[in-house]
Amino acid sequence: MKYSHGPGRASAPLATFVAAVWVGAPCDARADAYAFAETKDFNFGVVNLDTGAYTLCGNSGLLLAGLAADRAGHVYGGAYNGTGFYTVNPSNGALTLVGNAAINFYGMGSTTKGVYALDKSFNLYKVTIQTGAVTLLGSTGLEAGGTYGMSDGAAKLYLEQKGTLYVLNTKNGTATLKGNATEAFGALVQIKTLLYGGTAGASPQTIWSINTATGAATMVSTMQTETASFWGMAPTPKKEKGACPA
Prior knowledge:
Layout: E1 34-39, E2 43-48, E3 54-59, E4 64-69, E5 75-79, E6 84-88, E7 95-100, E8 107-110, E9 115-118, E10 123-127, E11 134-139, E12 148-152, E13 157-161, E14 164-168, E15 175-180, E16 185-191, E17 194-199, E18 206-210, E19 217-222, E20 230-235
Parallel strand pairs: 12-16
Antiparallel strand pairs: 1-2, 1-20, 2-3, 4-5, 5-6, 6-7, 8-9, 9-10, 10-11, 12-13, 13-14, 14-15, 16-17, 17-18, 18-19
């Protein structure tokens, strides 16, 4: 998702992907997965993660540090390198200010239990969605910088930085290494049991499935019509199948 406050995108070690079945592997019989996607050009839309087909819903007019979603399906974002915390209108990407935090947002994600943010030093915070106020949980222990993205839609909070996957402890912020991938991702989203990552900086942008036990990734699709880097993804309502919500 981001490139500032540290070295540029680094080449990650090539992770071995075993073709044997692993938990969360794609299945041809399942329905396609969809997610809201925010890109570096401020566009907001819906992407079919399995085909790369993209529907533009609107332009937010502001770069967000990522997307987050609550259990009710509301979508949020914090201004990248800014204090504003916003709700995102999923029908057109328009932003409504909720409040201002005591930090500048450099990353944003969510679990099924809450919304979280990173500051420029990679400290982890919990966000109060009603006001935008943040509560410090602790340092991730990681050096800030490079390409990175936080996850949405999973029970755990994942961070992918420069091709390495971590799980963040949502009580104290500590990052636990899971493994290395073949790509660096700017956004992560879990749909059902499968974690997806969208690239940042590649051309064209691609979408990968990620083994949460090892970090290993395999390419699923190539993004269509939208060429800017992924900066955030969030689950769409189950009834939405590729169209912008009415």
